[in-house]
Amino acid sequence: MAPIDPHSFTDSTHPLTTHIHLSFYFDFPSSTIHSSALLSLSSPHSGPLFLDIRSLTVHSVLDPQTRNPLPYSLSEPDPIKGQNLVVSLSNHSSVLVVYSTTPASSALQWLNPPQTFNKTSPFVYTQCQSIHARAVFPCQDTPAARICYSARMNIPRQLSAVMSARHVDRRPPVAGEGAALPCGDALWCAEGRLVEEFVMEQPIPPYLFAFAVGELGSRDVGPRTRVYSESAPAVLEAAAAEFAGTEDMIRQGERLFGDYEWERFDLLVLPPSFPYGGMENPRMVFLTPTVIKGNASGAQVVAHELAHSWTGNLITNKTNEHFWLNEGFTTYAERRIVEVVQGEERAALNIGIGWRGLNEEMERFSDNMEFTKLKTKQEGVDPDDVYSQVPYEKGFQFLWRIEREVGRPVFDEFLKKYIATFKFKSIDTEMFLEFLKTNIPGIETKIDLVLWTEGTGIPPDAFEPISNIYTKIVTLANEFKAGRMPGEDEVADWQGQEWELYLENLPKSVEASQILALDARYRLSESKDYEVKVAFLQLAISSGCSQYHGEVERTLKEVGRMKYLRPLYTALVQGNGRQEEKIFAKRVFAEARDCYHPIAQGVVESIFSKHM
Ligand SMILES: [Zn+2]
């Protein structure tokens, strides 16, 4: 007996779950889902079966055929993994768990009407990556265990449900469906309720399980793409305009990697508390509203999530220790799509921003270089705490290095074959390297594969991009250090990314007077583009400009995207002294906390505990 994943209780000697049928009764007033999960195993099993759960109240475990109770026990909670639900089976090939979620579920964010755009109805949504599916349903919560599922969602009639699955029906509740649930049949069939049904026939790792329930509207933007958001015409129109080019990107993706295997590519724009830029939930990508900038630049986040349809969702890392297989490949693919759709200069700019980010991560992890490796050891480590640009950007650099070595046509053939070989499988770094060496013989004599995958830091043959815009921006940033501000003509055609790159290439801390002068001329603190605004505010904080605290506070209360929370809170609290900033950060967090997803709350708390 041995665990197959450092973040799961799943045991190597137990059969894996192949299908889960879920019944959910959403009780918004108590922020609770009353549920049952019917798990089907790959083969009959006798003895203990280990399932991951976190913040769930288990009411009973039953034999699905006889409805007789099955013995079970719960381990003491582990701070990272949650609890091991140990069920005793005797030649069973399925098991029914009756349970309720609790308001503490780390996967779910429940929004009161005032926290939504329309302010009239509640909203709930999931974020299951990395290890939060277990806070929605009991499962073998490791990406090594792919599952299909079906779901019955009982919701208030004025709301609608979406899932990263195929929608089957919206209908009245049927008597008897709720009998086995903790809520009972009377509530299930009560006036004002209805049921939405979904099926997911393509096997997914549990972290790609996703739903949202709220007052939703939608617009078609392509033959296989519909944009969903809160049902507000302004939000829907803006989203539809921003993502109008999606079909074009899907075609580019197919040209690069082969058929799109998930049928639909819908987009869901969430309320501002969504903790990530995007989440690649299959069939329906979840997006932060901050990517809607009115200039189609949000398309880049969509390009990334789309690329996951092949790398990450079709081929999945076996455990989070090989996360670069998901994100390095996807970052590479994203830039290939951007290159075709938006041009080489734009792609080079993205590589440049990534290069800057990678170098900054080396400083962040200077006391823990393990997390500058591609393949990491994560026993006892919370994946949310060590989330960084390394798997994205170092992974990208590794693949780009291979491309430069063998040439693009050869590498493209390799990519197609890689995807065709491993689709709907979960693999690790060793399997990738074996496949690479088999298909590109002698590659290990040209590139130090061990240094790239197991070494710390940035290998010497990594590459800073060469492009006119990139070089010009970095030069201008260097000149700022000597006191020269860019002229209006030099920045006339800059979009958000140009400013972002410029600001990130400035020194960590500059004279307060320089910050004020820059802002007086270019109004960066008021930018509608959060990437620009946050990069500027971060610089302002570390340069000791406390006059921007008002803008920092507004930003931290407006959005819950961790890409912004992490640098702003870190800039406020890191370093010695800074008592005023620390008190300020604590107050803002106390007031904003309820607007953040539980995963983001945890991340801010861990920044505080590291620096205070
Ligand atoms: Zn990604």
Q: What would you note in describing this structure?
A:
This protein is of the alpha+beta class and 612 residues long. 38% of the residues lie in helices and 22% in strands. The chain is built from 20 helices and 19 strands. It has helices at residues 184-188, 233-242, 246-257, 299-307, 324-342, 344-364, 390-406, 408-422, 429-439, 443-446, 449-454, 468-481, 488-491, 496-504, 512-522, 530-542, 549-558, 562-573, 579-592, 598-611, and strands at 17-27, 32-53, 56-62, 72-74, 83-101, 108-111, 123-126, 147-156, 160-163, 166-171, 193-204, 211-214, 216-222, 225-230, 266-269, 278-279, 284-287, 315-317, 425-427. The strands form 4 sheets. Strands 1, 2, 3, 4, 5, 8, 10 and 11 form an 8-stranded mixed β-sheet that branches. Strands 13-14-15-17-16 form a 5-stranded mixed β-sheet, covered by helices on one side. A 4-stranded antiparallel β-sheet has the order 6-7-12-9, with no helix packed on it. Helix 3 packs parallel to helix 4 and helix 18 (562-573) runs parallel beside helix 20. The model has no long low-confidence stretch (mean pLDDT 95). The protein binds zinc ion. Residues 280, 304, 308, 327, 330 line the site of zinc ion.
